[in-house]
């Protein structure tokens, strides 16, 4: 029997009962509080980049790094006592706890957008047209994915940043075990692991490009609550005098992406990705799968 099956047998019975879950929940949240406190003690670290500008690494990113290090597949491999603090049970339960945390985050985003609604309305069509930016992942990513050897997986992997709505759409259209399904799942998992860290750092660098902060705030709302929070918080840290507006634009953009992004993917992105796939298959002299 594989290690995966053995883990499932030892973990699932415990997590399947209420009495079994509560002690693990308590331990999990103690670990999260400890990681958060450590991250806040570290604070925001600013790294100067000379004439280019600077990068601000916010506590949220440090807390993610600390939490990853606690897991049994990281430092737990070399420091055995850590597995008693954070075992596979806590890791499995954390996946379910994410949805609860996102609900709380959603409330915060709504309260951020509300007081600044007039400024958001003044942005006019910009908030709508910025949705076309979601096509950039495909226009840029699909040819690179195919050059690197991906076939139909490239369609699923690059049709968007592949969060939950895209995962559901591709699963419904092609099936999760299809090449497209494997592609979207791959991007989804990579996003879970590195997305928040990547966008938090990217936002810090983007300030130095000269692009208007409101445009960067809109771009932060890419349909993922955690990624949007990391990006917009990094922007707000660098531009504290525009903090409220940045958070409001980012929150509103994120909501709109969740609402309209699915239609954009269904009626524009996926058909365009399939057309591009056929074109690049001919250019690369590959048989279409």
UniProtKB/TrEMBL annotation:
Keyword Nucleotide-binding attributed: no
One Pfam family cited in the UniProt record for this chain: DUF3100
Keywords, sorted A to Z: Membrane, Transmembrane, Transmembrane helix
Transmembrane segments: 24-43, 55-71, 132-150, 188-207, 214-235, 255-277
Name the record gives this protein: Uncharacterized protein
């Amino acid at each position: 029997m594989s290690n995966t099956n053995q883990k499932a047998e030892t973990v699932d019975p415990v997590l399947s009962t209420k009495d079994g879950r509560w002690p693990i929940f308590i331990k999990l949240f103690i670990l999260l509080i400890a990681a958060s406190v450590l991250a806040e003690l570290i604070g925001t670290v600013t790294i100067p980049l000379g004439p280019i500008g600077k990068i601000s690494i916010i506590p949220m990113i440090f807390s993610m790094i600390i939490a990853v290090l606690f897991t049994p597949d990281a430092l737990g491999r070399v420091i055995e006592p850590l597995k008693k603090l954070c075992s596979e049970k806590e890791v499995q339960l954390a996946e379910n706890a994410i949805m609860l945390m996102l609900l709380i985050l959603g409330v915060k985003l709504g309260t951020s957008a509300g007081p600044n609604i007039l400024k958001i309305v003044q942005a006019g069509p910009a908030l709508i047209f910025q949705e076309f930016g979601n096509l950039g992942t495909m226009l840029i990513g699909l040819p690179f994915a195919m050059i690197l050897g991906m076939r139909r997986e490239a369609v699923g992997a690059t049709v968007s940043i592949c969060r939950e709505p895209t995962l559901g759409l591709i699963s419904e259209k092609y099936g999760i075990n299809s090449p497209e399904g494997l592609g979207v799942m791959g991007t989804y998992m990579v996003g879970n692991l590195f997305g928040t860290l990547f966008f938090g750092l990217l936002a810090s660098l983007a300030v130095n490009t000269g692009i208007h902060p409101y445009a960067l705030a809109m771009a932060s709302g890419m349909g993922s609550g955690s990624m949007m929070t990391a990006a917009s918080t990094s922007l707000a840290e660098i531009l504290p005098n525009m903090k409220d507006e940045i958070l409001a634009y980012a929150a509103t953009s994120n909501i709109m992406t969740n609402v309209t992004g699915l239609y954009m993917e269904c009626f524009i992105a996926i058909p365009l990705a399939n057309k591009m796939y056929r074109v690049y298959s001919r250019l690369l002299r590959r048989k279409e799968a």
